[in-house]
């Protein structure tokens, strides 16, 4: 049974940096559903797009797989494909919990506990980065996207979902306010919103859509589209 996210419901005098530890793992499904607009749609459509673009005999990567939502969404669409799905996360607590969800699936799923910057990527036709790149140090993001592109088969896709920021100050303030209103509508208090925001400062570092799109073009992706956006959350698809 999923536990409710109450991690920031009481004052934390010594608020630490946000980390994907065992405390977050316990409440993660509730946390992300109540925090990310359109999360269920993004996960479901990740599977649908994988079903369209996954190539027989290739590898499918879920980089930053957490509890395996995107991994399992893709697995459901690829049962008739000779593919291997590889889920990668650097949180041992996430990987351990995820193993219980994927014990018997077709196609086979391999889980790796490691930094995605260190992951060997090869023979890929689908690569997913759902709310992952934003936690990678900014100076390492370009090299990661370049490696993904070089390891991808022609016609393969990268799905990139991120919290974004806006270059326009008014739009940034508006969408931040709308996101906070979304969280309050899902039962979070002003205290919880404020403490979570402080804990994530300098841990989750968002970029503009323009920055993401330019990085993808520089890496050799030919067709790039924002297929989903709600407030300051967006998902892009890039075709090799």
TrEMBL record:
Q: What class of enzyme is it?
A: transferase
Question: What EC number(s) are associated with this protein in UniProt?
Answer: 2.1.3.-
Swiss-Prot/TrEMBL keywords: S-adenosyl-L-methionine, Transferase
Q: What start and end residues bound the annotated signal peptide?
A: none
Q: Which family does it belong to?
A: Belongs to the class I-like SAM-binding methyltransferase superfamily. Cx-SAM synthase family.
Q: Which HAMAP family does its entry note? A: Cx_SAM_synthase
List the CDD domains.
AdoMet_MTases
Q: Which residues form the Methyltransferase domain?
A: 60-156
What does the subunit section of this Swiss-Prot or TrEMBL entry state? Homodimer.
> What does the record give as the organism's lineage?
Bacteria, Pseudomonadati, Pseudomonadota, Gammaproteobacteria, Cellvibrionales
Gene name per UniProt:
cmoA
Does Repeat count among this protein's keywords? no
Q: Which reaction does it catalyse?
A: prephenate + S-adenosyl-L-methionine = carboxy-S-adenosyl-L-methionine + 3-phenylpyruvate + H2O
Organism for this UniProt entry: Zhongshania guokunii
What does the UniProt record say this protein does? Answer: Catalyzes the conversion of S-adenosyl-L-methionine (SAM) to carboxy-S-adenosyl-L-methionine (Cx-SAM).
Identification of the protein by name: Carboxy-S-adenosyl-L-methionine synthase
Q: Any idea which positions bind S-adenosyl-L-methionine?
A: 39, 64-66, 89-90, 130, 197
